[in-house]
Write a structure and sequence with these properties.
Strand order of the largest sheet: 8-7-6-5-4-3-2-1-15-14-13-12-11-10-9
Radius of gyration: 18 Å
Number of strands: 15
Largest sheet: 15 strands, mixed
Length: 283
């Protein structure tokens, strides 16, 4: 079934930031900061968040896999940093058909969340890819070593902006966006580094909402859409909708999006080690 081959990009929740590069920012664009530095008030080491991924095909919803995010304390060349993990995979009962085991790791500056190093280790069915990337914001370059089963290892260098973040770091960066300064329909620009390219993209702020997370209760939320990259999985455009807690944690509670065949959703399954109280919880 071809849809499951395409689905591997969704099993890792970071696919929320596989966003479009084609749409310019309008006059209602909102700039978070002038130099892209941001104060981290949303998370700390010891945090762990788990999501369950569902896929809909016709009238059937399938519990297809899980993705886990972890934050650890570490050092990079003597500098204090956060080590971010994103690990996703299909459930073993689907391995006979199409096995997915993806791991993303990022070492980021504790001060401004800029990336020091990013590793992608992805095994999707018969395909395998390993990317090891080092960021140098002084020279505005990223250096990536790429290995795969069918190609010789290669080393690439890519120009980055002072605001470029890898796909995993960008998730944590976005949790620190101050939405209180936004008006409805404002777009929040982001620069995403993915597969040796920098994609200027954005989130669109949709305002406040209330969402009831199964097993957790009802929460005041911030709601926004991510503008998705057009390709083998998404049709492109502002398709993916996200609900995050309206507090300092800004934890994504629920994500939904149509894809080319069916639709997907991610639901919060487990959370621990939060930096702040869940003040957005209603009951």
């Amino acid at each position: 079934m071809a849809w499951l081959r395409k689905y591997r990009a969704v099993i890792f929740f970071g696919s929320i930031f596989f966003l479009s590069v084609n749409l310019p920012f309008g006059k209602n664009s909102f700039q978070q900061t002038s130099n892209c530095n941001i104060s981290n008030t949303a998370f700390t080491h010891g945090e762990e968040i788990v999501y369950k991924i569902w896929y809909n095909w016709g009238f059937i919803w399938l519990e297809s896999g899980e993705v886990t995010f972890k934050v650890k304390k570490d050092e990079f060349k003597g500098m204090p940093c956060y080590l971010l993990y994103g690990v996703g995979g299909t459930y073993p009962k689907y391995d006979w058909f199409y096995k997915v085991r993806d791991t993303f790791s990022a070492w980021v500056d504790t001060a401004n969340l800029r990336t020091f190093r990013f590793i992608r280790n992805a095994s999707d069915g018969p395909a395998y890819i390993y990317e090891d990337c080092y960021f140098n914001y002084k020279t505005r370059q990223a250096f990536t070593l790429t290995r795969s089963k069918k190609k010789m290892p290669r080393l690439d260098s890519t120009y980055i902006t002072g605001c470029s973040y890898d796909v995993l770091s960008l998730i944590y960066y976005s949790r620190n966006i101050d939405f209180s300064k936004c008006n409805i329909n404002d777009t929040i620009p982001l620069d995403m580094f993915l597969e040796n390219k920098v994609y200027p993209t954005y989130l669109r702020y949709l305002g406040k909402d209330v969402y009831e997370a199964e097993g957790f209760g009802k929460f005041n939320c911030v709601k926004f859409r991510a503008n998705l990259i057009e390709g083998t999985l998404f049709a492109g455009g502002e398709q993916m909708t996200v609900w995050v807690t309206d507090d300092k944690n800004k934890i994504p509670l629920y994500i939904e999006s149509p894809i080319l065949v069916g639709s997907v959703k991610a639901k919060l399954m487990k959370v621990k080690g939060l930096k702040n109280k869940m003040e957005s919880k209603i009951h």
